[in-house]
Specification:
Elements: E1 12-16, H1 29-40, E2 43-49, E3 68-73, E4 81-84, E5 98-101, H2 105-116, E6 123-130, H3 136-139, H4 143-153, E7 174-181, H5 188-207, E8 211-214, E9 218-221, E10 224-231, H6 233-236, E11 243-245, E12 257-260, H7 272-276, E13 333-336, H8 341-344, H9 356-362, E14 365-370
Parallel strand pairs: 1-2, 1-6, 2-5, 6-7, 7-10, 11-14
Antiparallel strand pairs: 3-4, 3-5, 8-9, 10-14, 12-13
Length: about 400
């Protein structure tokens, strides 16, 4: 397969994410964007949520009015820069204009493809997420994957105003990139290697995109690739880096929420230590801010964006006020406090060889081709259990 078709000599790429603008909970997008530009020469258009929007999947907030603002990130980390409500020419020291939307990751993709840059985008790249999205439990909840799936479903997209034929009648090619935290702290060197690896994978895929043999649609380009990169320095060094084709491990999660006495005004999603310290089974969530290279002046809450102020810290609690009791006003409340240890560290011998979770456990980068659909069974499964031997197929009546 030759390289992906592009409207111009230089690929125009939509970059989106679910972690929002550069901040402690979104430490990867600025360096990744710069490397896509400098190494690959891609024309990158950034359209992202204006705040952290993890775990929303492919959701659209259909009752909301989505507002846009414009961010002009400054070197070296993109943590500062002017935010305006209207676009303006670049000033000295500015190299890019990013669009921030008050919507979900999937919303960002759809608006970018159909409203902001119709007939211009050749490829959608979502991420890099700060947290793995290997296995169904993570992938089906992921805003990063949701943004990529939204791209694959956002067709037909009109061709350029020049009258050239559209390249995206069936679907637009999409890549979702996720960095999986393995050890802490996550050092600057690990992040540098991960970004280098992510750009290499994106380049290799774009140069030799694969095909999907679909019994309904026939042979067509793969819709989405999900890429997971373990943040392990030794495994990411250039001479030791290994990448595997994988399928997705089917698993499930358990309890995701805990009772709390905090009100919404008191709750700070970036302060997990105080909000979870009463639980002996809790472990730090992988997609929480882990990058110690973020300057201390940067906001450390997941609601942060450029120039945002930290949300109020929650009230401190003591062992005499357990979180399993209703709040003082009698109202029962819950906050997101998942115990992900069974998903993050399963025994290697329990993982199917060739799955994304198996590759992650081996220290390999995994590349998983996906369809933007709820996948049915490959064969069998039709009919009731008592009819198992009767060879029921799709279309059989009962």
């Amino acid at each position: 397969m030759p390289r992906l078709q592009t409207y111009r000599d230089r690929p125009v790429v939509l970059l989106t994410n679910d972690d929002g603008p550069p901040c402690a909970s979104s430490p990867n997008i600025f360096s990744f964007c710069k490397l896509l530009q400098s190494r690959l020469g891609w024309d990158v258009r950034v359209v992202i949520p204006d705040t952290q929007k993890s775990w929303v999947g492919k959701a659209y907030a259909i009752s909301d009015v989505i507002s846009a603002s414009y961010f002009y990130p400054l070197e070296p980390e993109g943590l500062t820069g002017e935010v305006t409500t209207r676009p303006r020419p670049l000033k000295e020291g500015e190299t890019m204009e990013w669009v921030l939307l008050s919507g979900t990751p999937a919303t960002c993709t759809n608006i970018a493809l159909h409203n902001l840059y119709p007939g211009e985008i050749d490829l959608v790249v979502s991420g890099p997420n700060h947290g793995r999205n290997s296995s169904t439990a993570f992938a089906l909840s992921s805003g990063t994957l949701g943004a990529a799936l939204a791209g694959a479903l956002s067709t037909p997209i009109p061709g350029p105003s020049s009258g050239a034929a559209s390249l995206h009648i069936e679907h637009i090619p999409c890549i979702a990139v996720s960095y999986g935290v393995v050890t802490r702290p996550v050092t600057a060197r690990v992040m540098e290697l991960a970004t280098d690896a992510a750009v290499d994978v994106c380049e290799r895929l774009s140069e030799d995109w694969g095909y999907d043999e679909d019994h309904e649609k026939g042979r067509h380009l793969v819709q989405v690739y999900s890429v997971n990169i373990p943040l392990v320095e030794g495994d990411l060094e250039k001479d030791r880096r290994q990448t595997a084709w994988t399928n997705m491990w089917r698993n499930a999660y358990g309890r995701l929420f805990k009772a709390t006495t905090l009100t919404q005004a008191e709750y700070d999603p970036g302060d997990n230590h105080n909000q979870q310290k009463s639980s002996s089974s809790s472990s730090p969530a992988e997609n929480q801010p882990q990058n110690n290279q973020i300057p201390p002046s940067a906001s450390t809450t997941s609601t942060a964006g450029p120039g945002a102020s930290p949300t109020p810290a929650p009230n401190k609690t003591t062992p005499s006020s357990p979180r399993t009791e209703p709040a003082s006003d009698g109202q029962l409340r819950f906050h997101f406090a998942p115990d992900m240890r069974p998903l993050l560290s399963p025994p290697l011998d329990s993982l199917p060889v060739g799955s994304d979770a198996w590759a992650f456990a081996k220290g390999y980068i995994s590349v998983t081709p996906l369809r933007a659909q709820f996948a049915g069974l490959i064969e069998g499964g039709y009919g009731f259990g008592s009819e198992e031997k009767e060879g029921k197929v799709a279309g059989s009546l009962w």
